[in-house]
Amino acid sequence: MPTTASAAHPLTDVTASDSTLRRFLHGLPGVDAVGLEARAASLGTRSIKTTAKAYAIDLAISMVDLTTLEGADTPGKVRALGAKAVRPDPTDRTAPATAAVCVYPDMVAVAKEAVAGSGVKVASVATAFPAGRAALEVKLADVRDAVAAGADEVDMVIDRGAFLAGNYMKVYDEIVAVREVCGTAARLKVIFETGELSTYDNIRRASWLGMLAGADFIKTSTGKVAVNATPANTLLMLEAVRDFRAQTGIQVGVKPAGGIRTSKDAIKFLVLVNETAGEDWLDNHWFRFGASSLLNDLLMQRQKLATGRYSGPDYVTVD
Amino acid sequence: MASAFDYAPAPESRSVVDIAPSYGLFIDGEFVEAADGKVFKTVSPSTEEVLSEIAQAGEADVDRAVAAARRAFAKWSALPGSERAKYLFRIARIIQERSRELAVLETLDNGKPIKETRDADLPLVAAHFFYYAGWADKLEHAGFGSAPKPLGVAGQVIPWNFPLLMLAWKIAPALATGNTVVLKPAETTPLSALFFADVCRQAGLPKGVVNILPGYGDTGAALVAHPDVNKVAFTGSTAVGKEIARTVAGTRKKLTLELGGKGANIVFDDAPIDQAVEGIVNGIFFNQGQVCCAGSRLLVQESIQDELLDSLKRRLSTLRLGDPLDKNTDIGAINSAEQLSRITSLVEKGTAEGAEPWSPECELPSSGYWFAPTLFTNVTQAHTIARDEIFGPVLSVLTFRTPDEAVAKANNTQYGLSAGVWSEKGSRILAVAGKLRAGVVWSNTFNKFDPTSPFGGYKESGFGREGGRHGLEAYLDV
After folding, report:
1. How many of the other CB atoms lie within 10 Å of CB of A314?
2. Among residues A92, A296, B94, B151, which one has the fewest Cβ atoms lying within 10 Å of its Cβ?
3. Is B448 part of the contact surface with chain A (CB cutoff 8 Å)?
């Protein structure tokens, strides 16, 4: 499980200069939008029922990064979220814990305390989330802050402006710098904000750029724009991590975030993982859902499978 | 937690379709026994279960059916186009309403996966009737003169790979243009045509306009040779097509033939690889490769051969073979024991000639007719498997270095039905597509069909076009 960019791999050379990096990223196979979306849609029709469904729901719960990213977040809310992450269903202790809670840097210490001893990780969105429009020093300070407060994982946003301007090296350098601050203390998730990258070719290039720079996870979006995780952009990123491992031996995780609200949707994403990257990614070390409302739907579906009846929103906790 | 993510079986219910123990011929609006009382059985290829006993039409029945179609022709052709359109629209709507039933029926009788009959065949069947219904009152604007006339009685013979879809391709334009029809479905898949006869009755179609005569090759031969047939349309093997061409030669009958193919799927080094892999899979494993326009020859640029083959093999390992009624199934059964043995012998020949076969680990059901998806590497133009149509889930992989070489190899076949070009470079796609001698060239996709798009072949793949405005011409006296 390599976690740092310093791990030498056969692609180290491509980041030698601006032009080698550009040539490499633009030499990646293109993406045919119609074909990609058709494949994502066809995988959405696999039938997941009974045993497979029960397994998928528990797996999905264990992959949730339970998230609150509001200006109005309070320590109380974060503590409640932590308690829920540790024990999602108070009526059924067999429900697995979520993978992590995801908060702003100033709430990391509170979250850390709330999940202490449970194995649930604390992730923090740093680097001037969600726009990323700040000087590198400010972003690094944000990351340092989060790591110092005990964050196990850092979710950084890339500079979409630089990326769209074709300034790949700037984006690369920023990721490497953040990676260095994270060190061995925190795993790094790199957020592309795919809705702003606008083309699938850009999403594939960003995925490779992130992985070359040492991302532990590549993540679709912040959840703060109109278009967030979709089956198609997640499928594309799964292809990227699969191909990256084939070329370098390094495994990178994938995190779709934003807009995944129902169990049915979550299960479709798991099918994408299963049939694209493969079983090696069917684990919360390598795949996450960035979601806040998804968990309750998963819990209601879980209760339905256990009891044969739908209970309703009052039988699961509000955040 | 369980250790593997296994999908649950999701078989479509058989109860939506009610198959009678026996069926007659459909002549002059009625189901009747064959004159000589002959019957044959139709079986489900995935289980070998006998589904029903079908009357087998002989020469006397062909006479009866053609006479009924001739009687009906006078009235049917005299109807205003808008009236014929009403019947066709009605048929299209009934097909949509009964599409689940017809999809399950087709899967039982043919062996192809339910997701194909449900998501591809049936929507296209309905779309063809809708499309040609739209033309029925606009024939004078179709570009074939100010008052194009129908030909008369059309004798139509269709294959078993897309039983209902091929019926739609034949019957919809024939009726829209004012012809009447005698159609012979394939002996292994007669059921959906007989259900279609019931759809015609439900739509109140005048008697004799559509007649269905199940039977074997001799039934088809009698129909094609019948002196009172004005138009012959055939989809099937090249060998039978040649025989039909000989029979029809020198008569005044108009003929269209849709025959075999050995489609080239050309992948350039700048192609969208992941989508190309999907396109290759769809090109050769759709309907178990039993498709005349299948992309059965993969021409891959040498520089990306290894990368592409790795991706393709990995993708083939995720294909799910089994119960065709299960909606998770990608690969269903081969249509008949006869077809299975043809595929098997060609694959053996390929191996004997030095090509290297590869199949994913794949458990085949114990009953029924099955063949694992297979790809051959080390194939050259001289190999039998690169020249003969296999009509099964078998892909031959060849390589090329330059666009000219790709075009030369793609065109180096006695067929010319379909081809595919994969590249991110638009100018290359257009340049290459223009040089390919094939009726359909798909770019960055494969096996996409639409009623508005004409379909047909070059060379031994036949002549004439079905679908689109061009498809009208085959049924008009122009």
Report:
1. 7
2. A92
3. no
Task: Please report the ipTM that was assigned to this predicted complex.
Answer: 0.89
B413 burial class (0-12, 13-18, 19+ CB within 10 angstroms)? buried
The reply to whether residue B279 touches residue A239, judged by beta carbons under 8 angstroms, is no
> Which chain B positions have a beta carbon within 8 Å of A30's beta carbon?
270-272, 424
Q: Say if A50 is an interface residue toward chain B (CB within 8 Å).
A: yes
B258 is catalytic: yes
Q: What percent of chain B has pLDDT over 90?
A: 97
Q: Is A297 assigned a catalytic role?
A: no
CA distance A69 to A37: 30
Q: What is the CA angle A145-A147-A153, rounded to 5?
A: 130
In the structure, what pLDDT confidence band is assigned to residue A7 with cuts at 50, 70 and 90?
low
Enter the pTM of the model: 0.93
- Rounded average pLDDT over B342-362: 97
Amino acid letter, residue A111: A
| pLDDT computed for residue B4 by the predictor | 62
Tens of pLDDT along B368-399?
999 999 999 999 999 999 999 999 999 999 99
Q: Choose among B8, B115, B273: nearest Cβ to A29.
A: B273
Q: Do A49 and B8 touch (CB under 8 A)?
A: yes
The pLDDT of residue A51: 86
Q: Mean per-residue pLDDT for B222-232?
A: 98
**Alpha carbon distance B181, B73 (integer Å):** 9
As a whole number, mean pLDDT of residues B328-353 equals: 97
Alpha-carbon gap, residue B450 to B464, rounded angstroms: 17
pLDDT of residue A67: 95
Mutate to test the interface with B, among A28, A32, A62, A203 (most CBs of B within 10 A): A32
Q: Residue B155: in which H helix or E strand, if any? A: strand B153-157
Tokens standing for residue B229: 């047939």
| Among B residues 413-432, those touching chain A with beta carbons less than 8 Å apart | 424
| C-alpha–C-alpha distance, residues B42 and B24, integer Å | 13
Of A296, A270, A265, which Cα lies nearest the Cα of A281? A270
